[in-house]
Amino acid sequence: MSPPRKDASVEEDQTDAAARRAKGEFVRGQSGIRGLLGSAEFPAEPGRYHLFVALNCPWCHRVTLARSVLGLEQAISLDVAFPNRTGEDDPAGPGLWEFAPERRASLTGEVLPECTRETGTGRGLRLAKELYRAEGSEEQSLPVLYDRRAGRIVNNESAEILRMLGQCAEALGSRLPRAERPDLFPDDPALAEEIEALNAWIYTDINNGAYKAGFSSDQAVYAKAFAAYFDALGRLEALLSDGRDFLTGRRFTEADLRLFPTLFRHDPVYYLRMKLNGARILDYPHLWRWLCRVHALPGVGEAGSLVHCRQGYFGRSWNGVVPLGPVKPMGYPEAYGHPELAG
Questions:
Q1: How far is CA 52 from CA 98, 132, 253, in A?
Q2: What is the pLDDT of residue 8?
């Protein structure tokens, strides 16, 4: 198996990153642990691997989607961090992913039933950062694909993890027969090239573009990201206007999976939190119907949580208050069951 490609669809160019950040631009860092699932070092075996995720994180959402639609829920175990990171009063410091199922969400006043303790290492670690320290790394990001048998991190780049899960689904012990399991990256050179091209501009302008807009501290940088994001949505609307079911035609592929987490968050979260209030996905009829179509696929609805998204994004805002809407024309995610809302 060849290593996953490292290109513009996977990570951001780091040229002059420090200077760009100083000018107000959000520049996403690179993931540093890039092992290859299915190699001699990390053989693809049922029950060997574990995922550490946060359900509010769109990069984690890619991976939970892949695990779910590929039928790997029993083959790959999972721990879920609380959507808000540690605060200023935490002895380990602020801004750290924490496995703390006892924490209560300000949105609901209750614990979040999806959150877990850390079970992948057998050591009951509290912080994701502790996983990295064992590797001699100062990183702290999620998702993490972990080898329980070797006690090592395999990979922490979401684009590569989901590609490898697709490539190794059979060997990992998918519960789905081959005929019922989506082929996320088909062995067809022309289709593969089309998927890679879609991935590249969708990542740049939409997936990472949402963060470029929302986390910018410079008006001009924000305006550029805002324009690129909505230009890309218009491009997708035009692509889907020919009646195709999915981005490359009739088949659900990796390109659809990678787009979904951002658009799933747009109306209820990003419209306000990321200052992407140019339009809702509901205002793009073809794109809305695509979003509803993907949400209805087996395993997709169970792989994410808008409660975690709302709590995670707005719980980190200046006052920690989580908005309760939108409620018109109906609440989310219920709206994703109604493609007719877009007319």
A1: 11, 12, 24
A2: 57
pLDDT digits (tens, 9 = 90+) for 156-199: 999 999 999 999 999 999 999 999 999 999 999 999 999 999 99
First to last CA, the chain: 45
Active site residue 211: yes
Q: Which amino acid is at 109?
A: G
- Res 232 pLDDT > 50: yes
pLDDT in tens, 305-317: 999 999 999 987 7
Of 14, 264, 42, the residue nearest 150 (C-alpha): 42
pLDDT for 266-320, tens place per residue?
A: 999 999 999 999 999 999 999 999 999 999 999 999 999 999 999 999 987 778 8
Report domain extents, the chain.
Answer: 17-180, 189-342
Query: Average pLDDT in the 48-53 region?
Result: 98
* CATH entry 3.40.30.10 includes domain 17-180: yes
On the question of pLDDT at 5 being above 50, the answer is: no
Which is catalytic among the residues 49, 57, 203, 313?
Answer: 57
CA 321 to chain centre: 23
Q: Cis (ω within 30 of 0) for the bond into 326?
A: yes
The answer for residues whose C-beta is within 8 angstroms of residue 228's C-beta and 6 or more apart is 204, 205, 209, 212
Q: Which residue of the set 132, 203, 211, 229 is catalytic?
A: 211
- The CATH classification number of 189-342 equals 1.20.1050.10
